[in-house]
Amino acid sequence: MAKAPLATAVSRAGGIGFLAAGLDASTISSSLSQAKKLLDHQDQDASSSPLPVGVGFVLWGSDIASAAEVIRKFVPAAVWLFSPRKVADLVTWTEKVREASDGKTQVWVQLGSVAAAVEAAGLCKPDVIVVQGADAGGHGLARGAGVISLVPEVADALAREGHGHIPLLAAGGISDGRCVAAALTLGASGAVLGTRFLAAKEAELKPEHAEEVLRTADGGVSTVRTTVFDAVRGTTGWPADYDGRGVANRSVDDAEKGMGVEENKRLYQEAVAKGDGERGKQGRMITYVGTGVGLVREIQSAADIVEGLRRDAMAILEQTRAKF
Ligand SMILES: Cc1cc2nc3c(=O)[nH]c(=O)nc-3n(C[C@H](O)[C@H](O)[C@H](O)COP(=O)(O)O)c2cc1C
Question: At how many degrees (to 10) do helices 302-323 and 177-185 cross?
């Protein structure tokens, strides 16, 4: 869903958009070529700056050699590392990214606990640490805190261990300017939004999928963290401490009532075979979203989203200060 039109629109508006390489680094070349064209970016030479988009890799199943090839060729501004089998794998990836880009590509790592953030900071000295809270849409740690306690605890722990200079970004449940203002007051240098950009004009998802995002409210109740989505889709292989948050649907309901994986998988495949089958509580199609989904109410251009977030966050911070 996060392809070149979305990533470049976010970057052009003053954020940084990430392309999702997911588990398969070989597919990302064409998106990067398109991003380069859309941004009218000149070929890399000694004087040129990196391509102003990032690329996200899901480490546990990604091939580091293909990733390095793509990084060497396109030199993206940042690489996003997520879900290593062990924190030490981040070291290998960090070294490879820095070597392939001649140090021009920043290394961002997304982590979900205080211990992992401190360990990663010490082992691979990332340029940015993204702290992912339990409200986040998509995959993340099954056991974790929300950003309201996680971000300040990570900030304190990093400062204690001598890593206080590494910028922290908050991710998970952040859907509007109020949430961005809150993230900044928690000690984050910025915010990461996934769910909100599912409602960007440039996001590549089917209309029924986008409608489901707009329709879903009360995210703490209507979404759930579970491994059922991966089980029915067959996307198994995630590290054991991960699951994913999405709209609670019929597959989850059936699993909770005791249906076995094979039967649940069969029903899911039947729903997929019907085309983009039914969504929502009664459906089986998977809609990964965070608890902030209830704040996502309209489709907007990515530029309007980024500019609105920045404008609203600044206004709220000023209003809050004026209150005291
Ligand atoms: C549909 C969807 C797909 C995602 N895919 C990935 C992914 O491929 N790699 C990754 O590191 N994070 C992924 N995430 C998680 C994001 O990195 C981020 O933690 C999350 O979107 C932040 O929470 P929010 O969705 O509440 O804004 C995904 C999130 C969503 C909603």
Answer: 60
Q: How far is CA 102 from CA 49, 94, 96, 228, in A?
A: 12, 12, 10, 41
Sign of CA dihedral 217, 218, 220, 223: negative
Q: What is the pLDDT of residue 193?
A: 98
Which protein residue has the closest C-alpha to ligand 1 atom 21?
194
Neighbouring CB atoms inside 10 A of 15's CB total 22
Does 315 lie in the same domain as 270? no
pLDDT at 48: 72
* Beta-carbon count within 10 A of 238 CB: 18
Same domain, 150 and 260: no
Q: What is the rounded CA–CA span in Å between residue 50 and residue 315?
A: 32
CB-ligand 1 contact for 144 (6 Å cutoff): no
Tell me which residue has its CA closest to atom 8 in ligand 1.
Answer: 22
* pLDDT confidence of residue 17: 98
Q: Is 246 in the pocket of ligand 1 (CB under 6 A)?
A: no
Residues 132 and 38 in one domain: yes
Same domain, 57 and 199: yes
Enclosing domain of residue 280: 207-293
- Could you read off the pLDDT of 99-120 as tens digits, one per residue? 999 999 999 999 999 999 999 9
Question: How remote is the CA of residue 321 from the centroid of ligand 1, in Å?
Answer: 32
Burial label, 127 (beta-carbon count in 10 A; 0-12, 13-18, 19+): middle
Q: Per the structure block, which two tokens stand in for 257?
A: 């009532």
Q: What is the pLDDT of residue 47?
A: 57
Say if residue 196 is in the same domain as residue 100.
yes
Q: Report the separation in Å between the CA atom of 201 and the middle of ligand 1, taken as the mean of its atom positions.
A: 18
- Residues 239-294 have pLDDT tens digits of 999 999 999 999 999 999 999 999 999 999 999 998 766 888 889 999 999 999 99
